[in-house]
Amino acid sequence: METLPELLDAVAHDRFPPPDGTVTVLPQLCRRDAGVLAFTAHTVVLTDEDPAWVRATLAAVDCDPLAAPMHPRFLTALLDRTGRTAETVDALWVGTPLPGPPALPLREVADTGHPRVVRARRRRDSVRVWAADGALLVVGRGVGGRLEVALEVDGGGAGVGRGLALAARQLADEPVWAQVSPGNARSSRAFLAAGYRPVGGEVLLSARGGSTGCSGSCS
């Protein structure tokens, strides 16, 4: 199995891990990034814990082996063992870069205390923020050094979310990743309309007391 950045780059270009039902355990690239990434019949557990413990705990979960890595019992055991916290299992989307300037009039914001931005800075490095039509576009480097996008639409007309998601692709020169809660249908539709593709699911484990950055090790 390749490194996590190599794996993510391959997935972004529609080259997925073999759908053979296996679980790959990879070490964390830095203290911040731990979790479980699920693709079609192949799961990656990103942790510095003993791989033997991971496999034994998965085998003890009473469910279909394909479902075990995302099963609440395994995730709870992993959280307890690592002393970490988690929020939700997200759908993972990716969009390839696009030429041309964004159609939305974007204004880069140097500093903001908006909760979306504060949250992004806990989870990502090199965060940049743009404001447009009562909304925010937030881009930064997250898991494995990948470029991640988040949107906040507080106002504006119809299609602002789609326009922001599209703008992220136009501002980038590499694949752009989005993590969306499966229940957030509005956000899912915005990314779908902007040409992003669903490629998997993931749950990230956050260190208690705030995550440390990964600059210099994940970029």
Provide key terms for this protein.
219 residues, alpha+beta, eleven-stranded mixed sheet, 6 helices, 27% helix
Care to give the gist of this entry?
With 219 residues, the chain is α+β, with helices and mostly antiparallel strands.
- Summarize the helix and strand pattern as letters: HEEEHHEEEHEEEHEHE
How many beta-strand runs?
Answer: 11
The major sheet is characterized as:
11 strands, mixed
The helix/strand class is alpha+beta
Q: Unreliable segments (pLDDT under 50, ≥5 consecutive)?
A: none
Strand content: 25-35%
Mean pLDDT: 92
**Tally of helical segments:** 6
Our Rg estimate from Cα atoms comes to: 17 Å
What general outline do the C-alpha atoms trace?
globular
Percent in helix: 25-40%
State the distance separating the first and last CA atoms: 20 Å
Give a written overview of the molecule:
- With 219 residues, the protein is an alpha+beta fold.
- The chain is 27% helix and 30% strand.
- Strands 1, 2, 3, 4, 5, 6, 7, 8, 9, 10 and 11 form an eleven-stranded mixed β-sheet that branches.
- The radius of gyration is 17 Å and the shape is globular.
- The two termini are 20 Å apart.
- The model has no long low-confidence stretch (mean pLDDT 92).
